[in-house]
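Q: Hi! Curious about what C2H2-type domain-containing protein looks like structurally. Here's the sequence.
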Amino acid sequence: FNVCPCRAPTQETETFTLTLTEDNISAEDERLDHRGNKHVDFSRSKTDCKIHKGQKCFICDICGKHFKYKSLFNHHFIIHTSQKPYCCEQCHKCFRTKSNLLIHMTIHTGEKPYCCEQCHKCFRSKAHLVRHRRTHTGEKPFSCNTCGSKFSQFSHKTIHTGEKPYSCEQCEKCFRCKPLLVRHIRTHTGERPFSCYKCEKCFSSSSELRVHTRIHTGEKPYSCEHCKKIFRSKTNLVVHMRTHTGEKPFSCNICGTKFRQLSTLTNHKTIHTGEKPYSCEQCHKCFRSKGNLVVHRRTHTGERPFSCNICGAKFTQYSVLANHTRIHTGEKPYSCELCKNKFSSKRNMLAHQRTHTGERPFSCNICGAKFTQYSVLVSHTRIHTGEKPYTCELCKNKFRSKRNMLAHQRTHTGERPFPCNICGKKFKQPHALMLYFCNTCRKTNSTCRVAFVIVSEGTRYHEYISVYTLQQLICC
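A: Let's find out. The predicted structure is below.
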């Protein structure tokens, strides 16, 4: 290595040459000679280097970095050699430094020796504790000299420069910072080293585990300044804030449609490309997004991880649970801009709005029939394919749609879950109730408009009926 220029030979400086031989050199010193030479010339001062105007004494010949101490230089040099001499005995993962190995070992032992004095949260490494403390102090020591923004971590700069110095050896994809590369590599290896202590579900990153854990604890530390709605993750809060600001920063370069989330844009693009990269291992059905695949898998496993804390009903998706909860609360946050009708779910509102516009965006690629909802298109397509994925458990009859199967099952159970709110008569299917209401109760009751609103929105089957407009049913 080179010697700092401040080290010009003086009376207080002794210059000598150290010849490296197998007899008088350690393995650590041998790594220092990264040019492969058999000897190194350098100067050593009797006085510590830091008195020389703060200049650093040891210069790396490869990248030009300066170091005050030989130990720091040794630590740095391993980066160039790609050596990882410290290996974990349990998972055989290797590291450049012993300190990194010790931090990694706490993943297996569960040890978290560094504790926050204010909230008593514990961490595996001191660096993580220091970073966490800034959430209490509000300290943001890293400032960007381009946009002036301040941060608690040093990772923002590459956004402006576009620099992505960390690349994956398998697919050559590049990343701005090393943690993103490490997380990406796990998509190749399938490694999920972070597991939930309660349900034992595993995750590829600690941040995903942290957000997941809040499902069990109910913790929602992020609050919206406008409507006071609270969220489990900062990402969800940022996306929610855009509903207030109207910001849609992600746009499709094919059709120009804009989105609030990058993931939504990514899924949208597959509509144009027809790409369905996610495949079910059991039935080989393909999907455009990983989220849709995860939900589909639950049809095989029967898993319903989201349960209503009021009636105990369980669901395969959180969004379905959220819509269901509004049945109990009576909340209808989505309103039609044209007629001001309100709905408990965005899906129902969009389906309703198409009755005003006449839009039918979902078309069958076999017969060309068009539909207002994608789910109706899916059911229709099964007429052509002959697919009947829903089976009655009692008589093994098969059906194209879940709705038809449920209607059939009532012939076994005798259940009549759809009552008329005027006379109390019960029906097995909602359309039978609608026909009865329009032909009988409507003729004998002058308050049919009010009665229909009660029928369509105040009972458990409001989602089915709400796809029809009030005008359509009153005029039938």
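A: A fun detail: Confidence is low (pLDDT under 50) at residues 1-52, 445-476.
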